[in-house]
Design goal:
CATH architecture of the largest domain: 3-Layer(aba) Sandwich
Bound molecules: phosphoric acid mono(formamide)ester, norvaline
Shape: globular
CATH superfamily of the largest domain: Aspartate/ornithine carbamoyltransferase
Radius of gyration: 19 Å
Number of strands: 9
Number of domains: 2
Length: about 290
């Protein structure tokens, strides 16, 4: 049985196989390969893309979904995580969890007898990284020779992006203010000046400066990240064909200007759509023998 907790749990060839599966299913979106399968979705944090793309992915592949807010089931409060894991394993065929602590996911995984998918934790967001890679491959029509510049907070999205770049042999340059560097053992370029960082990049990638659960730090973060805003001046420091990506939701005129979001360089909605197709690849892969 396979889980999907972190990109680093998989080899490069596995990651490529999941992406190839996603591309294949994208071409034939309605199938019955998950017929009679039920996905349980557990959310400790809000979500639009992750929730809707998983629900629609299951429906389009012939399966169904049970969606739960963590406070309804009292994850780790009303009932121990390890008990909920074993109970849900008896009802559904696969579960996705969006949680704060990565340790909750790991404990759920340890006791589950069904595949567990990480729908975002404070440490990583692997499903997002899969959709990002799919978007880049489609945009540039190649699997190699890609350079991504991630500008902003060294957060969960940044860490999974570093991990998928390592898996695919892509170059990644990270540019963050001091104190916000990603905690990641994998190699990545670090360039403090965002204008320097984006110079030779194919993609400029941003995420919010204040992630879910960090709201109390908003004021300080707005100050610290101000020089790291993605605006047209920063886009012009890159090549003319460089595209802008963002996992969304975006805080317009904070980490990215409205002008940049709406510019022809922005491919954020293709990227959002690809959450659906990437998720299908992941789901189909986890049910493969
Ligand atoms: N990018 C992403 O995970 O979006 P949601 O928080 O809306 O699911
Ligand atoms: N870094 C953001 C990503 C949201 C999809 C957060 O964790 O809130």
């Amino acid at each position: 049985m396979k889980h999907f907790i972190d990109i680093t749990d998989y080899s490069s060839s596995d990651i490529k196989a999941i992406l190839e599966l996603a591309i294949e299913i994208k071409a034939t979106p309605f199938q019955d390969r998950l017929k009679n399968k039920t996905l349980g979705l557990i959310f400790e944090k809000p979500s639009t893309r992750t929730r809707v793309s998983f629900e629609v992915a299951m429906m389009q592949l012939g399966g169904q979904v049970v969606s739960l807010q963590a406070n309804e089931i009292g994850l780790g409060k009303r009932e121990a995580v390890k008990d909920i894991s074993r109970v849900l394993s008896r009802y559904v065929d696969i579960v996705m969890i969006r949680t704060f602590e990565h340790a909750v996911l790991k404990e759920f995984e340890e006791y589950a007898t069904i595949p567990v998918i990480n729908g975002l934790s404070d440490v990583s967001h692997p499903c997002q990284a899969m959709a990002d890679a799919l978007t880049v491959i489609e945009q540039f029509k190649r699997w190699d020779n890609i350079h991504i510049a991630y500008v902003g907070d060294g957060n969960n999205v940044c860490i999974s992006l570093i991990e998928i770049c390592a898996a695919l042999g892509w170059e990644i340059t990270v540019s963050t203010p001091k104190g916000y560097e990603p905690t990641c053992d994998l190699p990545f370029n670090f360039v403090k000046d965002p204008h320097e960082a984006v110079k030779s990049a194919d993609v400029i990638y941003a995420d919010v400066w204040t992630s879910m659960g960090q709201e109390e730090e908003t004021k300080q973060r707005l100050k610290d990240f101000a020089p790291y805003q993605i605006n047209m001046a920063l886009m012009h420091s890159a090549k003319p064909e460089t595209v802008f990506m963002h996992c969304l939701p975006a805080h317009r005129d904070e980490e990215v200007t409205d002008e940049c979001m709406e510019s022809p360089s922005s491919i954020v909605f293709d990227q959002a759509e690809n959450r659906l197709h990437a998720q299908k690849g992941i789901l189909a892969y986890l049910f493969q023998d």
